[in-house]
Amino acid sequence: MAFGRIVSAYKDRIVNYLYQFTGDYQKAVELSQETFLRVYFKAKQYRPVAPLSSWIYAIASNLAKTEMKRARKFAAVSLDDIAAHEVRQKAYAEDPPDPGLIRNLREALDALHPRYRVPVVLKDMEGFSQEEIAQILKKPVGTIKARISRGRSFLKKRLERALAGGTHVARA
User: Fold this and answer.
1) Which end of the chain, N or C, is less surrounded by CB atoms within 10 Å?
2) Per residue in 28-65, is it b (16+ CB within 10 Å) or e — as a string?
3) Domains, the chain, ranges and CATH?
């Protein structure tokens, strides 16, 4: 079945992509499931002017943006979130990454406005070209280049200050 191959090919990448926005693995899995439901039910709307991956990531991006807006309205930490975080921390016990660096990177990404975070994640973590990102986000390539540059600049400054022991940096 073609749909099964599509899910197999993109599932892990989409979950990872969505995790970069939510910071919550369970929410990323839920959003990826919703992404593939939409891919399945809207398959007739797909036009092969762009790669299939661009269309799938566009759906995932739109879901992530909607979720982020919703989450900002109802920002709270649940006990489930705390428990899930502890489980993830234990999973790293074998070969732990530097927790300070991971925390600083997560905080820097979280502080980055979605208009910059989305292109940076698509480019630097998912490996899309600027042209593909422009197709996914339906923006001009020049806009994408500028947002990637500004997002990277913000992340660099934020991480430099965090590593130097600095304090809070304004949101980009």
Assistant:
1) N
2) bbbbbebbbebbeeeeeeeeeeeeebbbbbbbbbebbe
3) 1-96 (1.10.1740.10), 100-172 (1.10.10.10)
Q: What is the pTM of this model?
A: 0.57
Task: Give the SS3 label for residue 98.
Answer: coil
The DSSP letter of residue 112 is S
Give the tens place of pLDDT for each residue, 74-110: 444 444 555 555 555 555 555 555 667 777 777 888 8
Reported as a single tens digit per residue, the pLDDT across 125-165 is: 888 889 989 988 889 999 999 999 999 999 888 888 877 77
Q: Are 2 and 91 in contact (CB under 8 A)?
A: no
CA-nearest of 107, 86, 93 to 23 is: 107
- Cα distance between residue 65 and residue 117, in whole Å: 11
Cα(111)–Cα(81) distance, integer angstroms: 19
